Amino acid sequence: MKSQFEILRACRKNIVKLLESCSEEDLLRISPNYNNNLLWNAAHVLVTTQLLCYKLSGNDLSINSNIVDKYRKGTKATLDSNIDVSELIELLNSSADQLELDYNKGLFKNYSEYPTSFGFVLKSIEDAISFNNVHDGMHFGYMLAQKRGL
Known about the structure:
Elements: H1 2-20, H2 24-28, H3 38-54, H4 65-71, H5 85-104, E1 114-115, E2 121-122, H6 125-148
Antiparallel strand pairs: 1-2
Helix pairs in contact: 1-5, 1-6, 3-5, 3-6
């Protein structure tokens, strides 16, 4: 699992670098042919990790429920934000480290199966962490394409 956490941190590092290279106006702009903006994608990966890993294992989320409600699966970006970019960057970095610490402490004893929209059923925390990396990478790809369209 060590490599899965390294992959997670590498992807998050790239997302953070992209966020830091954009103005706040660009982070909120919705590019043509996209439903969401750069900020939404970054916050969405943060929220999804919390839901896939913590909620489905019966643990408390470590982020505000307002953030979860605004950036979870099925939501769409708006031109305003309820998350500060510097706070989001901090959470993207710290939550990756915290996930590894919690995993190594044995926090994820139970896990509720979850059928993903990819057609893969998550049956364990290990499945969730691996799938989360795929999900983060997919959204990072969207972000790169969106940035090119700005």
